Amino acid sequence: MTVPRAQAEQGAIRSAATGARNMRLTIALAVVGSALLIGGARQGRTPARVPTGWIAVESPGRQADGYVCAFWDDTTWRVALTRDSTALQIVRDSTKPDVQTFDVPGGQLLGYDGGEFGGEVLYRANDGRVTHLAKQNLSFFVPSLSGILGLGGIAHLGFNRGWLFRFTLQVNGPWTAESLMSLDGDPLAYTALADDTLLVVALGAIVLVRPPSYKTVLFRDTLIALPNAHSVVRDRAGVIYVGMRYAVTRLKPRDHGYTDDWIVPASCPRRVRTAETGKCACAPDLHGR
After folding, report:
1. What's the confidence (pLDDT) of residue 223?
2. Contacts by 109-115, CB closer than 8 A, 24 or more apart
3. Residue 222's pLDDT is what?
4. Beta-sheet pairing, 159-169 with 175-183
5. Distance between CA atoms of 240 and 215, rounded to whole angstroms?
6. Rg of the Cα atoms in the chain
């Protein structure tokens, strides 16, 4: 059957328009994917200023005194950014509470992390009624546009795993817990980025997560985990800062991954082990300077 010329032309126009829309969608998805993979680095943006009294030093090797001493240190640092993201802020971190709580209509969500002994998440109504939602460790409740999320995990005897939950109040029903995805390690800290994307410091890895199912590992190294990472932020240049014991790990984006160094107190740029196990001292102090 012969197709009239006008009808054929209209079909060609519709086909071309559809192809153009598909091409734009493909390009948009590729741009989004590339932005996520490089951690949101923006060309021409200046990284946050390091606060006065702090300096950058080379990251120590796993067997070096600096690494061991960071693990032994009794001071943990919390990182934050100024409102315009131009300056890094470093303050002493407080102890993490044993129980995570999140206020919801009619009661509270409670999360417990018992490590290798197990944990759970439950809902406690204002009238005292308790509903058990999950029998797994919960480290953080995370408010998001897609609902109340939960990060948890376990690391014990070589086992290192994390997970992401979503907690939902059913219409005329109870609260429920939905497992969204597994993570590459026990989550130690997180920060919320744009569009419900989470930057998660797990044990041995930094993972970019976007519920319900997208995730990618940005950086993998045990050095960011063992010195007890407690907080993380990312500045407008895409530089990631992880607050931990003794130091702050700084990760600068490059073409394929990140380069890392440590930001440490200028008064104690290097620490070495003393004769007493579990004790360290600033290197200059050993020479009386």
Report:
1. 79
2. 109/133, 109/141, 109/148, 109/167, 109/175, 111/138, 111/139, 111/140, 111/141, 111/150, 111/152, 112/137, 112/138, 113/137, 113/138, 113/139, 113/152, 115/154, 115/156
3. 80
4. antiparallel
5. 17
6. 24
- Between the ranges 6-15, 43-52, 118-127, where is the mean pLDDT highest? 118-127
For position 41, what pLDDT does the model report? 52
CA of 163: how far to CAs of 154, 160, 188, in Å? 9, 11, 12
At 118, the amino acid letter reads G
Residue 235 CB partners (closer than 8 Å, separation 6+): 45, 47, 48, 81, 85, 88, 241
Specify if 17 maps to a domain.
no
pTM of the model: 0.82
> Looking at the predicted structure, is the pLDDT value of residue 151 above 90?
yes
In a domain, 284, yes or no: yes
| Residue-range definition of the domain harbouring residue 241 | 39-94+230-289
- The answer to whether residue 176 is domain-embedded is no
In the chain, alpha helices (H): 5-37, 65-72
Q: Which residue has the higher pLDDT, 244 or 171?
A: 244
Q: Encode burial over 6-38: b for 16+ CB neighbours within 10 A, e otherwise.
A: eeeeeeeeeeeeeeeeeeeeeeeeeeeeeebeb
* Domain count along the chain: 1
Among 18-22, 50-54, 231-235, whose mean pLDDT is lowest? 18-22
- Evaluate whether residue 11 is within a structural domain: no
Beta bridge mates, 237: none
